[in-house]
């Protein structure tokens, strides 16, 4: 069974992307967590735009949780596990529709699995590899989101439809950056 299936067998929202590459599976999954791989200038601009109202409020003397935090990025995720050269899974818990993401820091995979406080959303982002008949490797990413109650579903749904196009572009660019880093590593 796939790691993502064990971590989040039930979900209300998902998106998938993939690309074909000549890179080896191990190099691809190693590259996922390589520092700087997820630091895409294009994605960074969208994150800045999303965070601008809260950061501006803080700069003007108002209450802002983000004023003391680094911009949102891969470091916000918790590593939930790796299955050899087949899959890596990362997780987030929060109220992503809030200006400050309402994130709850996870101590590890067990904490993530056990977390079920009402009003929050759990998200798993995975990267997996599959061999291609032509000799290459398919690099896949899937994002699954589980809203654990009606209130979180009602709050998350409009947010999902608003951010999904940008999220999809970020995932596609991230796949390309992972591929490029894996190929550069040899």
List keywords for this structure.
Alpha-D-Glucose-1,6-Bisphosphate, Chain A, domain 4; 5-stranded antiparallel β-sheet; 5 strands
Could you please describe the fold and organization of this structure?
The chain is α+β, with helices and mostly antiparallel strands and 186 residues long. It has a single domain, classed as Alpha-D-Glucose-1,6-Bisphosphate, Chain A, domain 4, CATH 3.30.530. It has helices at residues 3-7, 25-32, 41-59, 109-114, 150-185; strands spanning 13-21, 78-83, 87-94, 121-131, 137-147. It has a 5-stranded antiparallel β-sheet with strand order 1-5-4-3-2. It is globular and about 55 Å long. It starts with a helix and ends with a helix.
Poorly predicted sequence stretches spanning 5 or more consecutive residues: none
Give the termini separation.
Answer: 29 Å
User: What's the helical proportion of residues?
Assistant: 25-40%
What's the count of strands?
A: 5
Share in β-strands: 15-25%
Indicate the CATH topology: Alpha-D-Glucose-1,6-Bisphosphate, Chain A, domain 4
Mean pLDDT: 93
């Amino acid at each position: 069974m796939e790691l993502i299936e064990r971590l989040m067998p039930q979900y209300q929202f998902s998106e998938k992307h993939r690309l074909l590459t000549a890179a080896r599976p191990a190099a691809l999954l190693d590259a996922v967590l390589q520092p700087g791989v997820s630091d895409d200038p294009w994605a960074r601009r969208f994150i800045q735009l999303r965070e601008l109202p809260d950061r501006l409020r803080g700069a003007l003397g108002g209450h802002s949780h983000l004023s003391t935090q680094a911009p949102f990025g891969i470091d916000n995720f918790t590593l939930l596990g790796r299955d050899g050269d087949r899959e890596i899974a990362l997780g987030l818990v929060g109220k992503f529709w809030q200006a400050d993401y309402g994130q709850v820091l996870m101590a590890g995979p067990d904490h993530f699995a056990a977390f079920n406080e009402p009003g929050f959303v759990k998200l798993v982002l995975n990267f997996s590899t599959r061999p291609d008949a032509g000799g290459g490797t398919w690099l896949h990413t899937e994002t699954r989101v589980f809203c654990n109650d009606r209130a979180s579903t009602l709050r998350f749904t409009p947010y999902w439809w608003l951010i999904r196009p940008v999220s999809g572009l970020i995932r596609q660019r991230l796949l390309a950056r992972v591929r490029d880093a894996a190929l550069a590593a040899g």
